[in-house]
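ok trying this again, last paste got cut off
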Amino acid sequence: MRSATAHQIYQNDDRFEVRSAGTHPTAAVTITEELLNWADSIVVMEKAHRNFIRNKYYPIYQSKKIVCLYIPDDYEFMDQELINLLKVKFEDIYQRGLI
């Protein structure tokens, strides 16, 4: 629910064009090569997500900027603590020019 929450928060933010996808087969939207190619930058929640992209889509992994937020899977959709954490981390990586 972390990516879905981030999508909800930033979908109307003029600085970003966002889409959300998961690595688990049961995700509502799963990562695809097409989706990864669409992205200018890729933000993942855990190191395992970055590793998944590296292992399954290595050419994309090499060519795209991928930033990990290191947010554990401990939150429900739109959990206020998660929203606060995402806003702090997204603003940080945005201000630092990482996305």
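PB: full thing came through this time. The chain has a mean pLDDT of 93.
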